[in-house]
Amino acid sequence: APRLRRGVGEDRLDDVRELPGGRARRLRLRPVRRAAAGEMPGPGGDGGGAAGAADGAVLFSVLPNDAAVRGVFLERGLARSLAPGSVHVSVSTISPQLARELGEVHRASGSHLVAAPVFARPDGLARKEAFFPVAGRRDVVDEIVRPIMAATGRQLRYFGEEPEKANVVKLCGNFLICSAIEAQAEAYDLASSWGVDRAEVYEMLTETIFDCIIYKGYGHRVAMHDHAPHPNAHFSLELGHKDMLLVKGAAKGGSSGEAGPGDAGAPAAPRLLTERRYDADTGEAQDESDVVKKELRMPILDVLDTKFQAAKSKGLQKLDWSAISLA
């Protein structure tokens, strides 16, 4: 089986060395700035550059955006330099379009891309509370990737052969988290406007009908106006906006939502949904052959984009993304 050889990502990812069984002691990490400069270690040493990146290895990458992934794996050629049979596990939140493009390059080179974007902050990873939507070749996922990632995650859910599907799931999740942040901000502001203690409203709701991690965690930040960048429990407003732009790009034909070479000529038309017609009186679905195509619309996303722009205009981009509630 391929060896767990090295990782490409940010310095803070040294935490993965705490994996049980000693596996992670063979995982070498390189910061983004060194990976982008081609300073990937060759097998058995610290030299060799991108061309010697892996010989039947498993490589994990955790990079902040499309530009970094494109620069390291496509422009610098790391994806093409991996030995046949190697596995690249991308834990990054990137556009579905880029994930599809990267997967095609890997297949052409005889290696495998498995997309496994992570739902967890560093503190959640340390507690083994991460969730991973996963997509890629099924036997590679089951036999190679799942045993490794099971040590740091609570659940891995498989979504198909095409890597980009896992990135779509990740964007759906982040969109729902951000929508929950904004909804709570508006709800607690409504309570405050009537002289009701927003903290008590938060406690009552999250102890009853909204008793879940997202409403509890981000609801506390919003209710208490606590948007400080706490160590290991922080997702910056800047990165949050990046993800919402990725959602917007995915909703408009699959473009990345970020400026870059991969966006040239990307279609701007909304994606289409095919749905069966429903009876207006009974709500029952009509005949399967009676379908209608309609454009995908995400009006809440437009509200969130406006809030992020307003927050950034106030210089709040380094705070937690819950700070959109201040805009």
Describe the structure.
This protein is α/β, with parallel strands linked by helices and 327 residues long. Helix content is 40%, strand content 13%. The protein has 11 helices and 9 strands. The chain has helices at residues 32-36, 66-75, 78-81, 96-109, 122-126, 138-149, 164-193, 198-206, 213-224, 237-251, 299-313, and strands at 3-8, 28-30, 57-61, 87-90, 112-115, 130-134, 153-158, 272-276, 291-295. A 5-stranded parallel beta sheet has the order 2-1-3-4-5. Helix 8 (198-206) runs antiparallel to helix 9 (213-224) and helix 10 packs antiparallel against helix 11. The radius of gyration is 21 Å and the shape is globular. The protein starts with a strand and ends in a 14-residue tail after the last helix. Mean pLDDT is 83; it is low at 1-6, 10-27, 35-54 and 259-266.
Protein topology:
Layout: E1 3-8, E2 28-30, H1 32-36, E3 57-61, H2 66-75, H3 78-81, E4 87-90, H4 96-109, E5 112-115, H5 122-126, E6 130-134, H6 138-149, E7 153-158, H7 164-193, H8 198-206, H9 213-224, H10 237-251, E8 272-276, E9 291-295, H11 299-313
Parallel strand pairs: 1-2, 1-3, 3-4, 4-5, 6-7
Antiparallel strand pairs: 8-9
Name a few traits of the molecule.
327 residues, alpha/beta, two-stranded parallel sheet, globular
Percent helix, as a range, is 40-55%
SS element count, helices: 11
Average pLDDT rating: 83
**Uncertain parts:** 1-6, 10-27, 35-54, 259-266
Strand content: 5-15%
Please state how the strands of the largest beta sheet are arranged side by side.
2-1-3-4-5
**What's the helix-strand series?**
EEHEHHEHEHEHEHHHHEEH
**Using DSSP, what is the number of strands?**
9
Which shape, going by the Cα principal axes?
Answer: globular
Structural class: alpha/beta
Distance between the termini: 51 Å
* Radius of gyration, taken over Cα atoms and rounded to an integer in Å: 21 Å
The main pleated sheet reads as: 5 strands, parallel
